[in-house]
Amino acid sequence: MPIAYLTRRTVIACAHRLYSDALSHSENALLFGPCAYENFHGHNYEILVTLKGKIDPKTGILFDLTQLKKIIHDQITLPMDHRNLNLDVPAFKTLNPTVENIAVVIWQALSPSLPKGLLFEVQVFETENNIARYRGE
Ligand SMILES: [Zn+2]
Predict the structure, then answer these.
(1) What percentage of residues in the chain have a pLDDT greater than 90?
(2) Could you give the percent of the chain with pLDDT greater than 70?
(3) Nearest-angstrom CA–CA distance, 129 and 125
(4) 14 is a catalytic site residue
(5) C-alpha 59 chain-centroid distance
(6) Which H, E and C letters describe 40-58, residue by residue?
C-alpha cells in the first residue's frame, strides 16, 4: 500500500508576548524585539498539520479530512483562536509562546485525538518568513 502525506491548513489569530524570566529586560528586548513589548501584539498563525500513513485501498484516503478538521477545530481553534496565548492558554502560563513552542503545544494537543503514529508534522507560520516545524521528537 502506498504511503502518503495529508495536510490540513488552519489559520488562527492570537495575541502573545515573548519574554523569558531567565533573561534581563534588555536581553529580552534585544532577543525578541517588538515581540517583547509589554502589552502584547497579534499574529495570524498559519498551521499546517500533516499526517503520514497508508492509503486505504477501499476508500483511497489515509484519514477522514472532515474528522481531522473537527479535531483541529476542537483542540486548536476553540482554545487558541482570538485568545491571548500568555493569559488564556494554560500551556503557555509558564512556557514562552514562541513559534517553536506553539508547534510543540499543537502537536501535544492533537496527538491524543489521532490514531497512534499518524501525526507526522506540525508546521506553524508566525509570519510569512518565520516558520517552525515539530515532528514529535
Ligand atoms: Zn510576536
Answers:
(1) 99
(2) 100
(3) 8
(4) no
(5) 29
(6) CEEEEEEEEEEEEEECCCC
Q: Compute the distance from residue 36 Cα to the ligand 1 centre, in Å.
A: 8
Report CA-CA distances (Å) from 6 to 14, 51, 114, 137: 25, 5, 13, 20
The CA 95 to ligand 1 mean position distance, Å, reads: 14
Residue 125 pLDDT greater than 90, yes or no: yes
Quick check: 85 pLDDT over 90?
Answer: yes
The whole-number pLDDT of residue 1 equals: 85
Distance 113 CA to ligand 1 centre (A): 28
Mean pLDDT of 47-59: 97
Answer yes or no: 35 catalytic: yes
Q: Choosing from 25, 41, 73, 82, which is the catalytic residue?
A: 82
Q: Tell me which of 14, 16, 35, 43 is the catalytic residue.
A: 35
Average pLDDT, the chain: 97
Distances in Å between the Cα of 14 and the Cα atoms of 27, 58, 85, 115, 116 are 24, 40, 7, 28, 29
16 is catalytic: no
pTM: 0.96
SS3 112: helix
